[in-house]
Amino acid sequence: MNEGPRSALRAAAIAVFAVGVLLMFLHPPSLSGAGGLATLIVAVLAFFLIVAWGTVGLMGLDGMSEEDFERLVRRSEELARQPDLARGATEFEVLVSDAIDRLPPDFQALLEKTPVVVSQRGAQAGAYGHYFGDTVARGYYEDRIVIYQDTLERDFGYDPELLAAQVERVLRHELAHHLGWNEAGVRDLGL
Asked: What is this structure's pTM?
């Protein structure tokens, strides 16, 4: 199915859902009898299905799979434990390393337990970097900071100094997420 009819069907489904929710609020079904109860159950199920569909649609299907991400992390951790297996650092990895070295010592200490990974999947993610985890305060999940080389070099690679500055900015941005700042808070910090 091409994009034209798919977009029209998507818009129609959203409109039907919105009208249905509006009608449920304006004229709620009576809970007396099986018909009213069945209507309520169908409406609740439809609501949850549409919200789930919308969530998956907003997340996108082009991101890095969990398996690919875990393979990247395992390889990075293996190389960190056995440096003799590692190849020489690329110029971009040196930029990331330099950005880490320019952080204040307290922030560098945080990164001793939080891997910083360089990835080539920024175009797929539509980002310069990502923080994966649940902040330093919780610690239920493993934390990761991913710096996307491809998008940073694409947008700032024409100027080596600008690229180095953006790598540092992205690192600080993702580190702020690790410290618990939400997106609006990180932007208020100027990152």
From this structure: 0.55
